[in-house]
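Severity: low
Component: inverse-folding endpoint
Summary: output formatting inconsistent between runs
Steps to reproduce: submit the following structure tokens with default settings.
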């Protein structure tokens, strides 16, 4: 994950909760149903959970409410400290989707929300193969993130956002590595997972994958 993405959250941390609550019109559609998205991820996981990108701890809270043992990974120091302060009983590791050390922690599920798009498709494939290596048989990956049915759908969404004057959202879609359902499905299959996709709002899809 590029350093620039980690640094962005230093600027965003003070307004993060406002954004996910839908109080910023430009990002309202991206975070529509945010609480339900978190709950669907938390209830789809099982056993001991590894959470990538804990952020301010919103998904962490849902996971703990479901009775999961949680280990967090967060590359941004301020957000990592915020999660650790909210939930002092869990371990929050400095790391990211590709660069992390579990130090013998055994996990059954890997989860994240609004994180996986920080990797290129090539990096996503590398990451999924690594996750397959640390999950047990029938272990799960539950990710919720922005992706698109097709590249044409992505271009249409960018055009729509620019027409609405939402240039920050459009710039995000062009700058970061938002991919397609078919591309991700192929990557999951190559890594040894059976995966289903469910669209949760205009942007976010739930990926529910089981190691075969």
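Observed output (run 2 of 3):
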């Amino acid at each position: 994950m590029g350093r620039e993405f980690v640094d962005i959250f230093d600027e965003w941390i003070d307004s993060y909760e406002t954004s996910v609550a839908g109080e910023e019109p430009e990002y309202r559609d991206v975070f529509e149903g945010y609480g339900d998205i978190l709950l669907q991820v938390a209830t789809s996981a099982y056993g001991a959970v590894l959470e990538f990108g804990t952020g301010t701890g919103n998904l962490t809270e849902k996971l703990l409410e479901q009775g999961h043992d949680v280990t967090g990974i967060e590359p941004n120091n301020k957000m990592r400290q915020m999660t650790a302060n909210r939930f002092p009983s869990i371990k929050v590791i400095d790391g990211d989707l590709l660069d992390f050390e579990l130090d013998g922690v055994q996990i059954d599920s890997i989860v994240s929300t609004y994180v996986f798009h920080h990797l290129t498709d090539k990096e996503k494939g590398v990451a999924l193969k690594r996750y397959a290596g640390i999950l047990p048989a029938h272990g799960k990956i539950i990710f919720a993130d922005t992706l698109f049915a097709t590249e044409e759908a992505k271009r249409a969404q960018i055009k729509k956002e620019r027409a609405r004057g939402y240039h920050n959202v459009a710039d995000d879609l062009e700058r970061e590595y938002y991919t397609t359902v078919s591309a991700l499905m192929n990557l999951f299959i190559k890594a040894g997972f059976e995966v289903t996709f469910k669209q949760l709002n205009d942007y976010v899809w739930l990926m529910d994958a089981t190691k075969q």
